[in-house]
Amino acid sequence: xxxxxxxxxxxxxxxxxxxxxxxxxxxxxxxxxxxxxxxxxxxxxxxxxxxxxxxxxxxxxxxxxxxxxxxxxxxxxxxxxxxxxxxxxxxxxxxxxxxxxxxxxxxxxxxxxxxxxxxxxxxxxxxxxxxxxxxxxxxxxxxxxxxxxxxxxxxxxxxxxxxxxxxxxxxxxxxxxxxxxxxxxxxxxxxxxxxxxxxxxxxxxxxxxxxxxxxxxxxxxxxxxxxxxxxxxxxxxxxxxxxxxxxxxxxxxxxxxxxxxxxxxxxxxxxxxxxxxxxxxxxxxxxxxxxxxxxxxxxxxxxxxxxxxxxxxxxxxxxxxxxxxxxxxxxxxxxxxxxxxxxxxxxxxxxxxxxxxxxxxxxxxxxxxxxxxxxxxxxxxxxxxxxxxxxxxxxxxxxxxxxxxxxxxxxxxxxxxxxxxxxxxxxxxxxxxxxxxxxxxxxxxxxxxxxxxxxxxxxxxxxxxxxxxxxxxxxxxxxxxxxxxxxxxxxxxxxxxxxxxxxxxxxxxxxxxxxxxxxxxxxxxxxxxxxxxxxxxxxxx
Length: 541
Hints:
Elements: H1 12-22, E1 27-31, E2 37-41, H2 42-58, E3 66-70, H3 75-86, E4 90-93, H4 100-110, E5 112-118, H5 122-129, E6 137-141, E7 154-156, H6 157-162, E8 178-183, E9 193-197, H7 198-208, E10 221-224, H8 236-243, E11 246-249, H9 256-265, E12 270-273, H10 275-287, E13 297-300, H11 307-316, E14 321-326, E15 333-337, H12 347-355, E16 360-361, E17 366-370, E18 385-390, E19 414-422, E20 428-433, E21 438-440, E22 443-445, H13 447-455, E23 460-470, E24 474-483, H14 492-500, E25 511-514, H15 528-536
Helix pairs in contact: 1-2, 1-8, 2-3, 4-5, 7-8, 9-10
């Protein structure tokens, strides 16, 4: 027997309608390319999203067509987050930090019909345009009229808005329709597309806004530093509108100084971004203090935040850090690390240990860990195994690819590629990626934990650890270390002595290389494949 409830479709237009009905006065603030602030309301967002959705249909966009964006975090990009799915099309966010050949591959693979391009990014996209002949229109915003010949078949965003109106009925009538497409950064092989549905993103929004997750509230002012091209900005453009929070968009201004100013001046309560951003912001705030007492949560994802940095933010700046974990394939939120009531007895040091973990799964996400032959392993906080996940906002296959046992198990779990432990109370800790673990003399060394220990040294700014061949031990860890400005005199011996008091003796790397910067991927993660290549070519060590 089925229940007798209404079949109310979980589509994203419902979120925008809700936001417009309950919170039409709430503010959206964007720092524009010239540094000025543009402000408007949820009511403006609603009207302009409707106009753009209608304009897309006039341009010939049909249900299921892919419409791409090549843009920063700003109000026009936010409008497209609703307008494109509202026209029953698929919002395909292009990563502006990918190489031209990767971008061309992604645009062609997705069969993008229209590409919206921020005027400040035209020089980047010009490297791609000649390789994507099937794109019918390039729509420019934040661009002067003189840019009309910069790309083929140029239209202007505001012209489309002005030539349209709000008399438009949303076309996304089925919750199972695709609404968003994000490609992985392609660290191994060609980039792969995660195709989200209205239903999956609606449920992700509910999960994200739960009190024991990010818990975005109407009283919040949210700064999504995480780019909108990175896994749909972690769902925050939907979570904020669903809860009625004010939104602050940084545009292209991702340096520490403007971010610090935005937090202080706009009284931001929640800011979300990757550890490299927050590491740089910490040093900016130490050198040039601001009043950031408004900030109730610094959300960290993308890669592990060193415990030492969590401690620094909380003990020195009074900022609560929320560690989160997820993947593009998971829409992306999977876990958050918020201490339980039972953890309060641990004291500050114990709480920072908890917060350094990737945390517990939010409702809607299931976890398990398995060994090399697929046997499920215990949640004892010690046993390491491969993490597998499942849930309503996790992919069952990649876009235009058949599911394979490489990433989907026979019983339907997604293989993350992460090696983890899980405590009895459900707190997950990523010990490494399967491809990054160092196996030395038959024993595993976690590069994640070793990096965290290294970064704890006051003279270290960044550190990445890779495995290098060793005749005796098969593999040994090599540390690639970036010193702080004040720590220019840090030596191998000093760092090795420091580590000897904090990690197992066999973990201490014999080889330490001091470098100017750790190479990073398009989304700000350490790019270890570059370091491995540099080592193999004799450029390191």
